[in-house]
Amino acid sequence: MKTLEEPPPHVKFLLATTDPQKLPPTILSRCLQFNLKRLPLEEIIQHLTKIVDDEGIQYETQALRLLAQAADGSLRDALSLLDQAIAYGAGNLSSEDVGSMLGSLDQNVVLELIKGLAANDAPGVLQQISQLAEQNPDFVTVLGDMLSLLQQIALAQVVPATVEAPDGEAILQLAKQLSPENVQLFYQIALLGRRDLPLAPEPRGGFEMLMLRMLAFRPDNAQVQQAPKAPTYAIPSPVTSERVSTQVAEPPPTSSGADDWKSIANSLEVTGMLKQLAINCELKQRESKTWHFSLAPEHKILLSPERKKKIEDLLKKRYSDLQSVQIRVEHPETETPAIAQQRIQESRQEYAVKVVDNDPFVIYMKEKCQAQIHNVQLSVSP
Question: Boundaries of each DNA polymerase III gamma subunit domain copy (predicted)?
């Protein structure tokens, strides 16, 4: 330790480690650090291939791929594993021997599990798990292999050219069979399940529950129909903080009295049944001392002497010349305030649905993810 901390002038130490944080700070402070990048998988395979070719060792390409994957970007670890695999296989490198030595699973086993999920075949998935359990695997490792395969499937859905052999054809087939949202959901469930699997009472039971969760909570694409392509027309500018205002043209009133009554009825400081009586009435005639109203027969339950008297008193406070109010039950000839409010609300709702349907993000979600809009609600300020 003393020599490392205070080396002689003519001595240079070259230290290599995968865990520099374990070195004492007194040593790290005296070192010039170079962080070496992990080697790509294909580069490690090429290097291992050159070695076994030069040594005249019989090998399978898949066996070298398994060794390179286990090395996790470290050429030093790959060479150590290569020596062990050669000794384990008595001078030959087969994928079966290497897989047995590493304790890894056949990729076909993981592929069959994903195929079962894609087909929504619960009995088949449980049968695959039963056969898998006979090999006494590490189910955390199995989940890691599943995550790796799901990542390749997701990449194949976006950029098919990234798929490489082996198993490239099977991955492309699964990429077509599974929807993107299913792949993302399976990946998230597997990722969280890998974290929580040690908490399960028994690894196989925890793994089975995780697979059943994928089957239970997957999106039901069978009931989703392809949304029709939205027509192309002008899309309004997005509104952030300001309320969307809709200009709804009022139809020309048949009489000035009906038009005036809409504003008068909505300005009356009343609520409940009294408010409903006021807005469902039509002002048919406005004489100097008497106002004549019509109330539709379907709303006659709103009319009572007490409510009529309250309406009359409120109007007398505003109009001193008014002496009486007459309300007859008959079909109105013009639009009542209640009908006008309903028409304006329907127009605003129609406008809001149109704005949402033509939003670029909504159009993208409909086309790419088969999204559907079931309801558009307007927020009403008090």
Answer: 94-216
